[in-house]
Specification:
Blueprint (H helix, E strand, L loop, with lengths): L47 E3 L11 E2 L13 E2 L3 E2 L8 E7 L11 E5 L6 E5 L3 E7 L6 E9 L2 E10 L5 E6 L4 E7 L5 E5 L8 E7 L6 E7 L21 E2 L5 E7 L6 E8 L4 E5 L6 E2 L10 E2 L5 E6 L10 E6 L4 E3 L7 E3 L5 E2 L5 E8 L7 E8 L5 E9 L6 E2 L5 E9 L2 E8 L4 E7 L1 E8 L2
Parallel strand pairs: 3-29, 4-33
Antiparallel strand pairs: 1-7, 2-29, 5-6, 5-34, 6-7, 8-9, 9-10, 10-11, 12-13, 13-14, 14-15, 16-17, 17-18, 18-19, 18-20, 21-22, 22-23, 23-24, 25-27, 26-27, 27-28, 28-29, 30-31, 31-32, 32-33
Length: about 450
């Protein structure tokens, strides 16, 4: 992972853990089709077992308060979490992918954790699932790719729509021109990217799939000032490839060539319905095309009315990156003022379901150059920033919020070959180590 500064200098990261101060639109319709349901469905073998006792003890979780001494301009509240062995209960299911004992050519087990009990219970699902999945905005459905394997060969790939228990609700054959699952629209349709022609990168295509009946709807549009594919690359942005649509499918954030320096780029907002440029953010962010692959990924709010990204005002000192919020009128709000006490990680922040809070990672000044960061939350209305004092090893994954927005999951890479998933409850002000050597897929409402 490359760090980004004002002129985007690359700083190597070293993986180690420091334990200190430990305290306990209207898209264009095309002809709709109803895909044939695949005959061969993934094999699901539920086997309820008690959750394994994790090897990490509560004392191994690092709580480290970030000091704001001698920084009068910095506004940061410290609200240190309490480590607990008693997990909070909720009517939800957390889906994880196990990373233990995974053999070559073998899919990891899917672990479903029922959080409605005082002691969470696991259910192991034997599914050949690809690393492409997304949970619906209401937390009721999950979509993922599953393959049918016969004699070691993949004979069929299906788009699966399942409920919180991973029980298949719909199976749709994956089509050749489909590229990857991108997420969900606000109307509960699955967004899938289509293969983009290298000769015409400005013309982008997506398809919406209705999870109830499998009907498809195509979205096509062209961005007039999108970077020339023969001259410039575009950021990966989790398979969005430089065109990040909002959940309402009316707007798209994309990289645009600077009006001041052709060797630089900035971000711009495209009106998909009106087919026009709305505004650019050159006064907040610009960088060299050379570092486009390290470009910070913006994050849309759940309702699609605003987005955030990490940038720096051009009149500020180099390296003073902050978190900014932009609405569809081009109004810009600076959410943080933390660059004098730490470094805000550019791409790994996430919105709460009610669009009121954003969880993000902040590396204190004394740990710059490492991949250690604290978890912090900023309220988008009051601009109150709270350091939860939870210090983790970054895993390049944004926190995953619970459906009701009172909790979130965060990955802590606490050793060279080990990571764990921590559950943070912002209402009860506690943190609970929920699993080891696994990665979260999503947090769902229990059916």
């Amino acid at each position: 992972m490359n760090r980004i500064r004002k002129t985007i200098h690359v700083i190597p990261l070293f993986a180690f853990v420091i334990a200190c101060n430990v305290v306990s639109s209207a898209p264009v319709d095309t002809a709709t089709t109803t895909p044939v349901v695949a005959a061969a469905l993934p094999t699901i073998v539920p086997s309820p077992i008690l959750m394994d006792t994790i090897t990490a003890t509560p004392s191994e979780i690092v709580l480290n308060k970030i000091s704001t001494a001698n920084n009068s301009d910095t506004i940061l509240n410290n609200q240190c979490l309490n480590v607990t062995n008693a997990p909070p209960t909720s009517n939800t299911i957390i889906a994880l992918r196990s990373l233990k004992n995974v053999l070559p050519r073998q899919s990891p087990d899917i672990i479903l954790m029922d959080m409605s009990k005082e002691q969470p219970r696991e259910t192991i699902q034997k599914i050949n699932i690809a690393p492409s999945f997304s949970v619906s905005p209401n937390g009721e459905l999950i979509t993922y790719l599953a393959s049918t394997i016969i004699n070691g060969d993949v004979t069929q790939v299906d788009l699966i729509i399942a409920d919180g228990n991973f029980q298949t609700q719909k199976s749709i054959p994956w089509e050749d021109q489909w590229d990857s699952i991108l997420g969900w629209a606000v109307d509960q349709k699955v967004i899938i990217s289509l293969s983009r022609a290298e000769a015409s990168p400005s013309f982008v295509s997506f398809v919406l799939v209705d999870p109830l009946n499998g009907r498809q709807q195509a979205i096509h549009f062209s961005i007039s000032d999108f970077p020339n594919g023969s001259l410039y690359d575009v950021p990966y942005w989790e398979n969005w490839y430089g065109v990040l649509m909002d959940p309402t499918l009316k707007w798209a954030v994309y990289p645009k060539q600077s009006n001041v320096n052709a060797e630089m780029y900035t971000y711009a907002l495209w009106d998909i319905v009106g087919n026009k440029l709305m505004f650019s953010l050159e006064n907040i962010f610009s960088s060299s095309w050379f570092f486009i692959h390290a470009s910070p990924m913006p994050t849309w709010s759940i309702d699609g009315k605003q987005f955030t990204f990490v940038g720096v005002r051009q009149d500020e000192s180099p390296g003073e990156f902050e978190l900014f919020l932009v609405n569809m009128n081009g109004d810009i709000k600076q959410l943080t003022n933390l660059s004098r006490i730490g470094y805000i990680w550019p791409s790994f922040h996430s919105w709460s379901p009610d669009n009121s809070d954003i969880a993000f990672f902040l590396t204190p000044q004394q740990k710059l150059g490492s991949d250690i960061a604290n978890i912090a939350i900023v309220n988008t209305n009051t601009l109150n920033v709270t350091d939860l004092c939870l210090s983790v090893g970054i895993q390049e994954t944004a926190p995953i919020w619970s459906p009701n927005g009172t909790q979130f999951l965060v990955i802590d890479r606490y050793g060279k070959d080990h990571l764990r998933i921590l559950l943070v409850d912002v209402v009860e002000n506690i943190v609970f180590p929920i699993a080891e050597d696994a990665e979260p897929i999503g947090w769902m409402v229990k059916p």
